[in-house]
Description:
The protein is built from nine helices and five strands.
Amino acid sequence: MTSHTYLDHGLTIFNTRLGVPGSAPRGSLSDPSRPFLTISRECCAGATTLGLHLVPLFDAELAQEGHSWIFLDKNLLTHALTAHRLPAHLAKFLPEERMSEVKALIGEIIGLHPPLWELEQRVSEAIFQLARRGCVIFAGRAAHIVTRGLADGFHLRLVAPRAVRLARMQEQQHCDRITAEKHLDESDRARRGYVLSNFGQDIDDPHSYDLVINTEHITPATAAQLVLRAMQDKVRAMAAHAG
Length: 243
């Protein structure tokens, strides 16, 4: 796996906050919750780029007792499994673009992995624990649903027209239009199915989010400023309510 500074830094903080072996504990679930952000996204709507813009902004403007913000996107699942002392290779059995139920059942029968519902529960637990500790940005894994009972969360949805996302897919993957269409449709359909089958919710329901951004004409830098401003308003409102 290619090493990325933001991932290495994020994993260190992740391990510390969840108290995995070799890390120092940080608080407990009885501590007051702290601000966190969830990002639900259509494929190629720009979640990863936005997340990387947000981390330094949040560190500068939404510092919480000196704790750095982290961004967990595609590596969230592997990190969550590691936090629960499960082999990282189990991540392949729990993609957000979910595997077939038949393949999953076979894996359970022959002992390749625990039941999928158990793995999903552990992933959700890790997400919830991290959210309670705050200063984290989640992308995907229905984090907006898992954490909806926590008052300090802000929930964002990123969308863009299909044609725009197709062009981004072709550029990112260096593939032809037909291949891009196939991957885009499969990814969107799988994410929609994942949220529906596991949580009984419609991922496209705008009422599930505090803010929906169409990234067609809004640059990542501009979107980051919009989210920062909204988060700042949220933090002020929560502080006023608590006072």
